[in-house]
Amino acid sequence: MHLAAADLAALIALCRAEIDRHGEHLSALDSAIGDGDHGANMRRGLEAVFAERDAIAALPLPAALERIGLVLVMNIGGAAGPLYGTLLMELGRALPGDAGAGDLAAPDDLAAPLERAIAAVARRGRSGPGDKTLLDVLYPVQAELVRRSPPGDIAACARSAAHSTGPMQARRGRASFLGARSIGHEDPGASSCALLTAAICGYFEEHRPS
Amino acid sequence: MNARADQPSAPSPANVGIVIVSHSPLVAKGAADMVRQMVGDCVPLAWTGGNVEGGLGTHVAGIAAAIEAAWSEAGVAIFVDLGGAETNSEMAVERLGPARAARVAICNAPLVEGAVVAAAEASGGSSLAKVVATAEELSP
Questions:
Q1: Considering chain A, what is the average pLDDT of its residues?
Q2: Is B58 within 8 Å of chain A by CB?
Q3: Closest approach of chain A CAs to the CA of B57, in angstroms?
Q4: B83 and A44: CB-CB below 8 Å?
Q5: Is A48:A71 a contact under the CB 8 Å cutoff?
Q6: pLDDT digits 0-9 by tens, B14-55
Q7: Which of A77, A82, A174 sits opposite B90 (nearest CB)?
Q8: B1 — pLDDT class (breaks 50, 70, 90)
Q9: Burial code of B18-43, b = ≥16 C-beta within 10 A, e = fewer?
Q10: d(Cα B36, Cα B131) in Å, to the nearest integer?
């Protein structure tokens, strides 16, 4: 996985477009089991990152990811802000300090740092597998990275993992107040996480590592 | 952004500060009004509510500003309503750095009752640990 500054700026633009396209759907999912603002919150966060994309892409990758995380925390708000923010900030911190653009040689180089970042998200949300959160997408995606699966397979895994949150009963967040009534609705955080994962994978499918 | 320092004319710097974080600015302000009525001006107090656009929600910058406004060397006790208020508060506290973060506690207590009881305890000059323990006695 060769990640140059231009790639990072393009990935940011891609993620922003993906969230923008699906914003209403994410808010509709959130209306069913939460407070209905997930799409708007995610749009605001991605817009803020997009506005800074050139400055972010000029940073070494660990610092760039940390910055993206901070911008997400400060702008998404809600419950998702601290979770996505923690994921990106910890991912940045988990990469080797001198990792510059292009230093990630293979997708599985990302597996160990992502595992650490996901553990931080779980601590932040005091959640685990099966709680009907974005973790239910992140865990299987990380497992695909360990298996060195191609980007297309990782994207498919993310989508399927998000769908699989439908039958789960929420145990964290506002959806948990609904108890069994949260069953039957896909989790909005898992859904946005799958959208972003699939968008990033699509990019790497088009731009094969050289 | 809705963050208000509800600064008394002469807060005692020795008393623990109280921060109220709600998704709703109206709830946060209302709770702060009740605290002020209960303990007068002798406790540093600040509230914040709403997302960055002023809608229902919480955000880190607003919480951080409220912590600064209610800062006391004796520490700060934070009261939150729903999940995002708690996680956003945690992020705001971590961003203070370890030394100051150690003097801030997010209380596991009901927002209104917790803040009022904590402020009453703080107005007597109690330590942060005592203020937090008194408020958390309200939670089963």
A1: 91
A2: yes
A3: 6
A4: no
A5: yes
A6: 899 999 999 999 999 999 999 999 898 899 999 999 988 888
A7: A82
A8: very low
A9: bbbbbbbbebbbbbbebbbeebeebb
A10: 16
Q: Which domain holds residue B111?
A: 3-127
Phi-psi region of B40 (alpha: psi -120 to 50; beta: other; left: phi over 0): left
Give the pTM.
Answer: 0.89
Tell me which chain A residues have a C-beta less than 8 angstroms from the C-beta of B59. Answer: 74-75, 77, 81
What are the boundaries of each domain within chain A?
A: 5-206
Cross-chain residue pair A41–B51, CB shorter than 8 Å? yes
- B106: CATH: 3.40.50.510
B59 is catalytic: no
Mean residue pLDDT across chain B: 91
Average pLDDT over residues B90-109: 96
> What is the number of residues in chain B?
140
Q: Answer whether B60 sits within 8 Å of A81, measured CB to CB.
A: yes
Quick check: B83 and A174 CB within 8 A?
yes
Superfamily of structural domain A5-206 = DhaL domain (1.25.40.340)
Cβ separation B91–A82 shorter than 8 A: yes
- Cα–Cα dist A99/A114, whole Å: 15
Amino acid, single-letter form, for residue A174: R
| Shortest Cα distance, chain B CAs vs residue A113, angstroms | 21
Distance of alpha carbon B109 from the chain centroid: 12
Which is catalytic among the residues B23, B29, B57, B92? Answer: B23
